[in-house]
Amino acid sequence: MALPKDIEKIKKQATVFVIFGATGNLAQKKLFPSMFALDKSDLLPEKLKIIATSRTSHSTQKFQDLTRESVAPNDAKKWQNFSQKIEFIPSDVSENKNLDKITTRLTEIEKEAASCIKVILYLAIAPTIYEDAFKNIGKHKLNFGCLVHKNRSRIVIEKPFGYDFASSQRLNSQIARFFEKEQIFRIDHFLGKGTVQNILAFRFGNEIFEPVLNNDYVDNIQITFTEYGGIEKRGAFYDKTGALRDVVQNHLFQLLAIATMEEPQSFGHEDFRKRRIEIIQSIKKIAKSDAEKFTVRAQYEGYRNEENVDPKSQTETYALVKLFLDNKRWQNVPIYIRTGKKLAGDVASIIYSFKEVKHKVFENFWQNPMPNHITIQIKPAEGIGIRLVAKKPGMTTQLEPVDMEFCYRRSFDIPQLDAYERLLMDVILGDQTLFIGEVGASWKVIDPIREAWDSGKPPLATYKPGSWGPQEADQFMMREGHVWLAPYLTICKI
Ligand code: BG6
């Protein structure tokens, strides 16, 4: 985790980012805006170059103009300063075209700097071409950095890493031919979100919550990640991926891990990773024959008319899975994970719903059950809420649910860093704490669900854009004897 002295270290670290896929969605929407924001806050290395590369050919000037439009349309002066660091070299990393130009340019930059530079290769490309990219990067020795052992290149890879267990293992062995563990940064940007890291502070920096976060007290856990937006221009990627692979296998499993893991010995990357992996390994596999009992999948109406989507597509844009962990602390506590595109709003939260205890003294004073809940909310606003019961003012004893809230924006007047800003700094520093390791265990959970879904079980439901999802998901919860708590427990309202 970045300390003030780490920032000094970052600033002194001569660095070149090589961004593959520089004209794509990720680079334009996340990477360049984050780098620009870091530059404005003076947090980037003093000696920094960004080699942007993609198959579409541009001059450096044209690429800079194009990027400026999406990153800083109204910030001409600051952009001018930042854009001088960007150069464009057209190349095709999957077809091995023009990579020699990148190698040559790196050598020149090193000569100009008269010192070793840290090379960071960022693959903002389609995961389907990772394997070829590793090979071609290896052919051109881009993995070597400046040949001084301790200054080898780093490679940053986006999720999904693989398509299923087998492909993730194949990719692992491919990448291992060219890169050592310390060089590999697998990004799951949810780990870079400040509120997600705050779950650790909430759980392990306080005394009063951890003793009740277990199956003696918690009835169920609900992890919700709903998006108002659709698939935008990403039809080609999304239609092959679907919600389960796009966000459940990675982002939502990481949230689950942080919400349920045991306290790590330290926040060093080995200890923290170990605890997260333990949780993923403890998820009970859903047998293919049980998929109808444990999952719901659905597609929003109109999805098949989206650009680059198969008109007969069976891809889910909504996924619900009920999971159990096979460990002592969480045995028999159902964990409901759901996500979807084009829903009624942007919500990301973890809710621990507590068991309902019949308090004898109040027996006659409430009609409806009022269990306690703890909500950790990432969206729409960041905070933590506790739903409890209070006596309504008045002569009679009437109990009502109320919320106690901690809201980031009320307690701190510093905005949260964007997840990518934080993670890019960690890559420069070489800190792997907020990056993921081996991903095989999560694919082992996903694969049987995927297999069942691909064989039509359960059938693909549909839902209206702007709704909270398919009716099947509500009926599912009703059968479980629960209701969805998000968004009804939304806290820190504006
Ligand atoms: C990405 C998914 O990893 O995360 C997208 O591919 C999703 O489909 C996005 O929209 C959500 O991230 P955030 O940080 O915008 O909530």
UniProtKB/TrEMBL annotation:
Cited Pfam families: G6PD_C, G6PD_N
InterPro entries linked to this entry: G6P_DH, G6P_DH_C, G6P_DH_NAD-bd, NAD(P)-bd_dom_sf
Enzyme class: oxidoreductase
Protein's GO biological process: glucose metabolic process; pentose-phosphate shunt, oxidative branch
EC code(s) of this entry: 1.1.1.49
Positions of substrate binding: 189, 193, 227, 246, 341
Keyword field contains tRNA processing: no
Pathway: Carbohydrate degradation; pentose phosphate pathway; D-ribulose 5-phosphate from D-glucose 6-phosphate (oxidative stage): step 1/3
Catalytic reactions on record: D-glucose 6-phosphate + NADP(+) = 6-phospho-D-glucono-1,5-lactone + NADPH + H(+)
Ranges where the Glucose-6-phosphate dehydrogenase NAD-binding domain occurs: 18-198
SUPFAM superfamilies xref list: Glyceraldehyde-3-phosphate dehydrogenase-like, C-terminal domain (SSF55347), NAD(P)-binding Rossmann-fold domains (SSF51735)
Active site (record annotation): 251
GO terms of molecular function: glucose-6-phosphate dehydrogenase activity; NADP binding
Domain annotation Glucose-6-phosphate dehydrogenase C-terminal: ranges: 200-484
Keywords linked to the UniProt accession: Carbohydrate metabolism, Glucose metabolism, NADP, Oxidoreductase
GO CC terms: cytosol
PANTHER family (alphabetical): GLUCOSE-6-PHOSPHATE 1-DEHYDROGENASE, GLUCOSE-6-PHOSPHATE 1-DEHYDROGENASE G6PD
Function of the molecule: Catalyzes the oxidation of glucose 6-phosphate to 6-phosphogluconolactone.
Family: Belongs to the glucose-6-phosphate dehydrogenase family.
Protein name: Glucose-6-phosphate 1-dehydrogenase
Gene assigned in the entry: zwf
